[in-house]
TrEMBL record:
SUPFAM superfamilies: DinB/YfiT-like putative metalloenzymes (SSF109854). It holds the Pfam family DinB. It comes from Paraburkholderia terricola. InterPro entries: DinB, DinB/YfiT-like. This is Uncharacterized damage-inducible protein DinB (Forms a four-helix bundle). It comes from the Bacteria. A divalent metal cation binds at H59, H145, H149. Belongs to the DinB family. PANTHER family: DAMAGE-INDUCIBLE PROTEIN DINB, SLR1116 PROTEIN.
């Protein structure tokens, strides 16, 4: 899945599609490491804001779902957080995260630059109410949130038997020959979604 060659008129929306693509790729790498762990090691208490790989990765998924729901006016809002641990096992969580990543990628690929100014409603609960945000503001927030917590997972993996994968890459043309297998896997995931 190489970066898009979008026309110059949609550079920003194409950038968000590239970020969503990179997000899916980084999650693929991270989960491949996590899937080598036992269920016990995956759930083991560690030093981090969310004190386990299991809790941190479930948090990432729930926040992805929360903002995606707002982007598509899905109507679930804060009920997404009713169960803070919907996927206790890494394999189940990976399946859900991969589906979420593909939904976000498809959404971003459908955008044009003018869509980024459209406002969406985000339910912040009774104390704050419903906030209005532009799509072009919500998407960077989602990607930064993912990157932030993936960094925590990466650090926690250092204390396990799984080697933390390299996550600080983007889709540079010179690196494409080194990433053929992973990019093929990402394409396969999209086709099966």
């Amino acid at each position: 899945m190489p970066p898009s060659d979008a026309p110059a008129t949609n550079l920003l929306s194409a950038h968000f599609a590239d970020m969503a693509r990179n997000n899916a790729w980084s999650n693929l790498r991270l989960y491949r490491a996590c899937l080598t762990l036992t269920d016990q090691a995956f759930a083991e208490h560690r030093v981090s804001f969310f004190p386990s790989l299991q809790l941190t990765l479930n948090h990432i998924l729930l926040v992805d779902r929360y903002y995606f729901d707002a982007l598509v006016d899905g109507g679930e809002g804060l009920t997404i957080f009713d169960n803070e641990l919907p996927y206790p096992r890494a394999a189940e969580l990976w399946d859900a995260q991969a589906r979420s990543d593909q939904q976000l990628l498809a959404f971003c690929e459908s955008l044009r630059d003018e869509d980024l100014h459209r406002e969406v409603r985000i339910d912040r609960g009774p104390a704050v109410g419903v906030q209005r945000e532009k799509i072009g503001g919500v998407l960077p927030h989602v990607f930064v949130h993912q990157i932030h917590h993936r960094g925590q997972v990466h650090a926690m993996l250092s204390g396990t038997t799984a080697a933390p994968p390299q996550l600080d890459e983007f889709f540079l043309a010179a690196d494409a020959p080194l990433r053929v297998a992973e990019l093929r896997d990402l394409n396969s995931m999209r086709e099966s979604a």
